[in-house]
Amino acid sequence: MEPSVAILPQASDYALQAVHAGGGVVEPLSPSTLGLILTGGLSRDALETVLLQYPHLSWIQLPLAGVDAYEDLILRTPDRQWTSGKGAFAQPVGEFALALTLAVLRSVDTFARARSWGSPQGVSLHGKNVTVVGAGGVGREILRLVSAFTDHVTMVRAHDRPVPGAERTVTDAGLDGVLPGTEVLILAAPMTAATKHLIDARRLALLPPEAFLINIARGPLVDTDALVAALAQDRLAGAALDVTDPQPLPDGHPLWSEPRALITPHSGETQDMIRPHFARRVRNNVHNLAVGAPLEGLVDAQAGY
Q1: Fewer Cβ atoms within 10 A, N terminus or C terminus of the chain?
Q2: Homologous superfamily of the 90-263 domain (CATH)
Q3: What is the pTM for the complete model shown?
């Protein structure tokens, strides 16, 4: 069987090729359409309209790893299979997490802002106690890369099943216990109701003042006002943020003038970087849909990712 698949908002060449490679056929939406692939920005309201008009759609492929924009639709349609890009974009995001970590530890951001020759500064990642929050594809890729510098990596995840390669694994409930010994805290967790302001004023206070915070997940995982205060009061050595809350970070925001903050415009993954990974996810899922195999990147509606 060749699954009939629609692509919205537009059928780009790479998505067309991926569907065909998976054994499917791309057609306009109709009562016979089994799958819907989102390649970019389709509003929540527009997607809801499509789902109401075509109740036989059994599979929706979302374009990103995060699903918070469509969370209520996913919860309301448990009979449909929703898949995301989770795990598929681990390589580029993990690479950027390491780049930000090295940059902020070695004071590259300070040197980039300098207008005259200064004194050498920075600290090494080698041997540091690193805590990675989130053990999905991105978190595990960060673990793999950071392990070239240190054996002391703690992984924080929803359950206590050990993450291979980590020195230790703790549950979300154990986060408070590891923060006082953490020198580098890297956030790679999904955005859910439970992770909003995961790092707040209380948890920032648990970190030692020589610690660094790196966020490549979602901006709201961090209480921005609390972070601004911690940096301004020298209670944190530095922060590297690829995501912010609000996002985009407004001109004139205190973080722009904070010398200990390195900010990048959500650049952990560009379209050119993730396109081949997304195409592979689409190809595999079209094939799996055709043969009745489990889909990759299935969204857990209750967990929110």
Answers
A1: N
A2: NAD(P)-binding Rossmann-like Domain (3.40.50.720)
A3: 0.90
